[in-house]
Amino acid sequence: MTLSRFSLLCLACAFGVLLRAETGAELAVRAAALHARIFTIDTHLDTPTLSLRRTGWDISQRHVQAVDFSQCDFPRMRDGGLKAGVFVVYVDQGARTPAAFAAIRDNALRSFLRVHAVAERFPDQCGLALTADDGPRLMAAGKRAIYLSIENGYAIGKDLTLLKTYHELGARFFGFVHNGNNDLGDSSQPETGPEWNGLSPLGREAVKECNRLGLVIDGSHAADETVRQLVAASQTPIILTHSGCKAICDHKRNVDDNLMRELAARGGVIQMNTVSQFLVTTPPNPELARAEVRRLARSAGANQTDAEAAEAAVGRYRLRAEMNTGRATLDDFLKHLFHAIEVAGADHVGIGADMDGGGGVVGLEDVSHYPKITLALLRRGLSEADVEKIWGGNTLRVLRAAEARAKQ
Ligand SMILES: [Zn+2]
């Protein structure tokens, strides 16, 4: 049977409809629907450090970044379609003495309690997430899922048993180092130079303990050699909860393409941060650097009250805002995100913006702006399945791998 001219015409029309490019408006609608539907997680929110310590600061209320510098609360998480966040128990690197270890452990414990208090106070709005399944389960119940992480292995000093304590308190991610080397390994930003050439012997024991407990190892802030050794030593994929690409901005905090490929080859994930000085090259700012040294000197004594510590954190933001230097934009952030996807693949990239911890760029000032990322990814030509992995699937996968290893 031959096709009539009429049926050929119909076929051509049908193909015409199918092949017609999606308009910008249609893409925006599709992006919004996708973003609302999928599980989304930001793997690095410093809300416990910046906001939860402030007297009277209420996470269930909407705040304005331009007024109080905070970048995450429940109303803005809802606006931004952010279903889950990893709340960070962060400790400043300080003296490596028994007294300082004890004080910093107590600081970390208080941070855990602050997050637990949020979950207890607002059970209708959020819940603590302890497993990979908990996040999507809480999302289905219309609640924000709160995961917990440690930033800086200094929080255990030299006491590996604290890993179990923190795990029992809900930590599921463990960042080995911050700025400055510690007893577990070398930082990407040491005061002097490498001390261990990667992991220390204790750091290697910590890797085993993390694997045994089901703690996902976080290599952000670690020196390249430390990351490389973490990738090789860990029996489960590791995560960089808030990092960037050296190929786009040559900063010590960022990782180069080879290391990203090594991480991906072992199933790991790199989550893109939004800290301006890691996204674009900013001119040195001695005044800001001096203020940071003063802030660290004050907190190193660990005798600060919560109000004092919170005021110091806010002060840093205020100074940055006043100086208004070198702020990156959403496009700068996207350059890093797209590059990481190109190099590591969509199965190995995610979002960890470091909101409330120095993150936030022009156009992505707080968590309420996150739907823009989904729109940009679709506009870039990524599939909806890939966007879903980037926003949450990859993080859940590494969590599941850590859980499975712990059960063995
Ligand atoms: Zn950090």
Q: Can you walk me through this structure?
A:
It is a single chain. The protein has helices at residues 5-19, 24-37, 47-50, 65-68, 74-79, 98-121, 134-140, 161-168, 201-213, 224-233, 257-265, 276-279, 286-300, 306-323, 330-344, 371-379, 384-407, and strands at 41-45, 84-90, 126-128, 144-151, 171-175, 216-218, 239-243, 269-272, 349-351. The protein is of the alpha/beta class and 408 residues long. The protein has one domain (31-407): TIM Barrel (Alpha-Beta Barrel), CATH 3.20.20. Strands 1, 2, 3, 4, 5 and 6 form a six-stranded parallel β-sheet that branches. A three-stranded parallel β-sheet has the order 7-8-9, with helices on both faces. Helix 8 (161-168) links the parallel strand 4 and strand 5 (171-175). Helix 2 (24-37) crosses helix 16 and helix 13 (286-300) packs antiparallel against helix 14. The radius of gyration is 22 Å and the shape is globular. Bound molecules: zinc ion. Residues 151, 220-221, 242, 354, 357 line the site of zinc ion (ZN).
